[in-house]
Design brief:
Strand content: 35-45%
Distance between the termini: 29 Å
CATH architecture: Sandwich
Radius of gyration: 17 Å
Shape: globular
Number of strands: 12
Number of helices: 2
Helix content: under 10%
Largest sheet: 6 strands, antiparallel
CATH class: Mainly Beta
Number of domains: 1
Strand order of the largest sheet: 1-12-3-8-9-10
Length: 220
Amino acid sequence: MVIEARELADGTITSGRLEGWRFPAINTGDHIEIVLDAPSGLGTWAAAWLEPRNQHITDVLAQTQMINWETDYTYDGEADAEFYGHMSNRVEGTVWTRENMDAPTEGYADVADMSTTPHVYGIDLFDDGVVVSVDGEAVVTYPKPENATAANWAYVPENTYNFVANLAVGGDGGRKIVRSAGDDWRLNIQRITFKPDVNTTMAASGIIGVQEAIPETIRG
């Protein structure tokens, strides 16, 4: 499957999105992996990520406070593998909660050929943490806090998630568009695999690096 952005004759640039409402709901204990090669070119912005499906935490908060549904959905958690044209050959992993909305937990990994060769990107929801990985190595980890609350730990059995893949060009994420020969505005998805109830703890997962500190994201 290919998600492609195109520049039309009038200068309008299209974007594309795969929304997983017809996929099984993803929950604690589940693993999803996406085999893809990323787009290339300054201005591109693509992601494979988990979006809250049932808004368990946000629905409760909405009973007592105003909710901005366009942004506050991350109160229920979000985990991303992101690909930016201005960070060529680097994947960024991001994990969100209500407490860290202004500064989400981020990490990165260099993947030298990610726009020309498919790699396996995984998102795992464990009982004790969340991991975004590439080829079996952690990009970012978010351990469950010892004092877990709805504000800092959204990944509870009551919450379910959709898988989403999307590609856009420009905007806040893509930044300035600079066209060059060889740019490829396509997100090429080779395979999506959902494995329910396979995860217990991060330490038992076999993912390399889940106990290591992840450096701060470097934005080019």
